[in-house]
């Protein structure tokens, strides 16, 4: 692999790692905020509720990210295909215009002789 691609991949992985850790911390804060509204819980119960809340939130987040990643890959494929079709049409149209211009110039040259 090329160094630039390796660097870009490494930066993307680091960004993903940092974003995921931020999501985990946010989920922990929300779990603590939630259990803070339930003052009758014992310490063990509070820890259990926070753990379950955190696991549920992270599972939902992971599923959402998986769906978004899959859809992004689908869209990338669709847009790449459309781009290739558009590029082929533009090349064909350009070739047609150039051929027509050459033909017109040739015809004009032959007519003016």
Task: Write structural notes for this entry.
- This protein has 113 residues and is an all-alpha fold.
- It has one domain.
- The protein is built from two helices and no strands.
- The longest helix has 69 residues.
- The radius of gyration is 30 Å and the shape is rod-shaped.
- The relative contact order is 0.05.
Write a short abstract of this structure.
The chain is mainly alpha-helical. The protein contains 2 helices and no strands. Helix 1 (3-36) runs antiparallel to helix 2.
Order of helices and strands: HH
Cα gyration radius (Å): 30 Å
Helix and strand composition category: mainly alpha
The residue-averaged pLDDT reads 93
- The total count of helices amounts to 2
Largest sheet: none
Outline: rod-shaped
Low-confidence runs of at least 5 consecutive residues = none
Helical fraction: over 70%
Number of domains: 1
Share in β-strands: under 5%
SS elements, strand count: 0
Distance between the termini: 60 Å
Write the layout of secondary structure elements.
Layout: H1 3-36, H2 43-111
Helix pairs in contact: 1-2
Q: What key phrases describe this protein's structure?
A:
rod-shaped; 113 residues; mainly alpha
């Amino acid at each position: 692999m090329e160094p630039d691609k390796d660097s870009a991949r490494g930066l993307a992985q680091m960004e993903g790692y940092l974003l995921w850790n931020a999501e985990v911390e946010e989920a922990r804060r929300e779990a603590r905020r939630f259990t803070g509204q339930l003052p009758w819980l014992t310490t063990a119960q509070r820890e259990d509720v926070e753990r379950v809340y955190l696991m549920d939130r992270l599972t939902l987040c992971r599923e959402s990210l998986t769906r978004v990643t899959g859809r992004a890959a689908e869209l990338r494929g669709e847009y790449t295909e459309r781009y290739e079709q558009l590029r082929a049409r533009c090349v064909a149209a350009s070739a047609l215009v150039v051929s027509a211009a050459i033909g017109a110039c040739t015809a004009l040259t032959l007519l003016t002789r």
